[in-house]
Amino acid sequence: MNDERKKANEKDKIRSRKFEYIITNHIGSIDAIKDKFGFKNKSKLSSFRNPESSDQLTSLHLLGLQEYFKIPVDVFDPSIPYDCDTIDAKIEAYQKQLEQQTKELKFLESLKNHNLIPPTLYDDDVQTQSQIDTIVKEYKQQYANQASMGIFEKKNDELLKNLLGTWYAYMYPSCLTGIWTEDGISMTKTEIYEDGSVIDEYNNKGILKIGHEQSFIIKESKNAKNLNIIRFNNHHVIYRSTFRILIFSNQNGKRDEEMVNYGFYSRKAYKPDEAKAILGDIDKVQLKLDKEFATRVNES
Q1: Between 220 and 42, where is the model more confident?
Q2: What is the CATH number of domain 157-299?
Q3: Is 253 exposed, middle or buried (0-12, 13-18, 19+ CB in 10 A)?
Q4: What are the residue boundaries of the structural domains of the chain, listed by start?
């Protein structure tokens, strides 16, 4: 019986020494513990720090240290020796684990707030990985559709009203001669309708997509089936009958050679020389694919 008592006393002493070390090196102030534990004074804590005292830390106190000061309960376990490096390593590992859990919880909360976690994912009848994969796949598709609606289906009656009707698009073509050019310039009459559909004089069809600050028209060429994207700033349209556009397209007759053009839309049908005077130097408003760059990409 005496041996058991000695062992118990030794455990209490080691626990007190650990407590003293943790206060000094990890908590920094006994007052902080007093306030969190709701003690009226520090006498109780002083007795906990005294290896010879019969008043020792209880399991409830250890849980309090873990809750308020991120000191893991198991650092006081008798199997953990009174060794500074071991104690430090235990506390550091526990606090890193808490930080990671906090980050994960914040991430999950963010996903939840942005409707990125399917509400049915945790239903009792969802048991297999296949069920989870199906739910996530369907939800991602649903969310993608909602996100697209949120970007492009904004109601902007004023902008649409200003875009309706006939426009003339002016830009430099990739080739300065051809059936779509006149005197080295491309001029295309285009109609925009209330449903957002777009069609030009060569029967190339497309659709208008309205965003917050910018909008664009996607047209598919009737014969080559290439997509042309025409982007513009919304506020330019509302106040002007002529506004600049940025065109992403393929060069005429070249399937794998893209180009970028600045041009402009206008309500007015300009003469070729007038339009070229507005466009200016072709080298400043047109960029064609650099073939050497394309080769480097293909060979990388």
Answers
A1: 220
A2: 2.40.128
A3: exposed
A4: 2-104, 117-152, 157-299
